[in-house]
Design a protein that fits this description.
Chain lengths: 415, 415
């Protein structure tokens, strides 16, 4: 079923109503491979951290009461009573009037309730002279004081980087349950595209979108299945999409959504299952020829062949959904405010996205202007852009000198 | 050879003088695996893009001169002369007085020098009525106008993301030369550490650093070789380091760099080759017990066992070097300015790094305060932190209400 051209916001809304973007699943992954993944369950510590009370200094483990009254002038004499090495269970018990040598990180021996730093002690044979008093628990990290058994260490939804992986190791875990990466099938259509590396016959161009989109899928937490180029025949397109529906959670086709005589992708998509095409055409620029279908609970985006249009469509519609399917924390693209260096026009009645460059002017103001290629469909527009601006369909233009949000493709370099 | 405790800046300088951080090498990688890598050579286009002049609209390819004088009232009648499909070499030549049907993206047939949009035409049998004049090159993207053969498309040092990979595909490349990922061996020392998953004997703790550091290496473009835990014996440590020197560009050990009796890592490192230990102890907090050695042109960092100290050492000294060895564009950690919610002290005479939390107060000001664990060596300090602050050794403290830079571990969430 085809509907009228929808506005950008209507498209977003209808998309949200028609497809439930919940994480595609969970899997157990080794902590050595878990970097860049997202926790699907709270991680509860199976143990106390530290697992035993440990000294935080080199010195002597004592009964604190034995040190009361000690001073530089009047050292208290305790009996030397062995030592505790790091990584070993203490073989000694600290009794009244005794001191056991201990190093940083070693377990506190039974009987001791404080550690005197080595700097405030001296030893002569079996005599340990203590020149400062210590209160109970001084220089001790008590068992479970960092993390106690049963405590939630990391919450569901937490992104796993180096610091989080360290915490998982600390509590002895070798695996955790993370969200599966959604599988995104990427296929290119159109009789004019050829796989890079092959000889280019006259009238044909190399396929760009399958490569751009596969990398873009990776960048937002998905797993791309690059199905390559599907020949411009209805039956072959149908078979390819049927295969994609079996193997992927989201399907991206590109090309073949223009008005030319061979553009049958929407019809094929619509024939695959219910409800079929839910969005056909969006009032935005670039990228009007967009078709979105829901087939048997899976999403099919038919993106335009123009690489820049296709990438914009991906950024605004597909990326947020893949992130949700991957259980990734919501995160918009980084943006900065910049001043329009020139008047930038929007397309009448259409949400307009324009690739831009950023420069600092003499007084240090960040200025924004459209990428000066002037060519529709140019590859270099995409590679030369620092980011893009979004102009509402309610605005005719952004006037020179106006401040505007710029979404960044890469980190901004200060002048 | 051991030297005196160096300041933070002296350490940075000496490190720079003693080790040349240039990319470790280059390799040819398929464009399907090249995401997140950095170009080691300029990429020059072997072809024109587009490879032929193509129509940017659906319409009729004509000789522009034939349309002069056309208007809504007075259509010019041209002879219909076949059509050009997308992806096919045109079989027709456009002669004076004729018009060839063409679709967006199709190659311009010989003889034509402009395209009239279908909207401004109508057809009756073999008559094509043109109601608007077009100038030469209208609605045509001429051969090579986006990228010309021999043009540098992407420069050496360029980070490869989705947009760049699209450009590589556009010019038909299947492989490019990128910088090799530096190999970083990571090993943990100390008799107290046990690999996660194994039973924890009394007095022992799970190894954290090998896991944190391996992930941190990955995050800055390196390839981690996790050599696991090396037993606390001189000979075994020496063999492990010799193996690491053969297989890695940089070696990170952690643990065993305190003042306890078993801390022989620096001595072992110093015995491996020239010049040996160049830095032994840095006036910073946390992380004083740091040893840096250069052995046969490779760097060995002996980091402290304390996970937070070890991570800070990695961030300030190791990370920038790995990024240079990986040929990555220079990039400091993201930072924001925030107001100190409380007085934050520095350690006398030492560059102080403190894990912090960020919060917005009622009037929307971003406030920064130390992570409130209060435990030295706590794992949770690392996981609870939003970032860290750096306080100069020349300052005694940062007063409450002062604005200070905060380096971010993750993206800041606006309130």
């Amino acid at each position: 079923m085809f509907r009228k051209l929808l506005s950008f916001d209507e498209t977003k809304q209808l998309l949200e109503q028609s497809f439930s973007s919940v994480p595609v699943g969970e899997e157990r992954v080794s902590i050595s491979d878990v970097h860049d993944r997202v926790l699907a369950q709270d991680v509860v510590s199976p143990m106390d951290i530290p697992p035993f009370s440990r000294s935080t200094v080199d010195g002597y483990a004592v009964k604190a009461a034995d040190t009361f009254g000690a001073s530089e002038d009047k050292a208290i004499n305790l009996r030397f009573c062995g030592h505790v090495a790091i990584g070993e269970a203490p073989a000694v018990t600290v009794k009244e009037g005794s001191a056991t040598e201990i190093v940083t990180g070693a377990p506190l021996p039974d009987g001791a309730d404080a550690v005197v730093m080595v700097e405030y002690t001296s030893r002569q044979g079996n005599n340990v002279f203590v020149r400062r008093p210590v209160a109970r628990n001084t220089n001790i990290m008590t068992k479970g004081s960092d993390i106690h058994k049963g405590e939630t260490v990391l919450k569901k939804g937490r992104f796993l980087g180096s610091r989080e992986i360290g915490a998982l190791a600390a509590i002895g875990l070798t695996q955790v349950v993370v969200y599966k990466r959604p599988k995104v099938a990427v296929l290119s259509t159109g009789g004019e595209v050829v796989e890079p590396g092959k000889t280019l016959p006259p009238g044909k161009i190399y396929d760009i979108n399958a490569h751009t989109l596969s990398a873009a899928v990776l960048e937002c937490g998905g797993e791309a299945i690059n199905l390559g180029i599907v020949p411009d025949e209805k039956d072959k397109m149908k078979s390819a999409l049927e295969l994609a529906l079996v193997s992927a959670d989201v399907i991206l086709t590109s090309g073949g959504v223009s008005v030319g005589p061979k553009d049958f992708t929407p019809q094929v998509v619509d024939s695959l299952g219910k409800p079929g095409v839910i969005i056909s055409g969006v009032a935005m620029k670039p990228g009007k020829p967009l078709t979105i279908a829901v087939v048997n609970g899976k999403l099919i985006f038919s993106l335009p062949g123009n690489p820049t249009s296709s990438l914009f469509m991906f950024i605004v519609f597909v990326r947020p959904i893949i992130m949700k399917l991957a259980g990734r924390p919501e995160e918009s693209m980084p943006k900065v405010k910049a001043v329009a260096a020139q008047k930038m026009f929007s397309a009448r009645g259409r949400r307009t996205f324009t690739m831009v460059n950023l420069t600092y002017n003499k007084d240090g103001t960040l200025m924004v202007s459209p990428v000066p290629t002037g060519l529709s469909g140019a590859i270099t527009t995409m590679t030369k852009a620092d980011g893009f601006v979004e102009i509402s369909e309610k605005q005719q233009f952004v006037d020179a000198g106006t401040e505007i949000d710029v979404y960044l493709f890469k980190k901004l370099k200060k002048p």
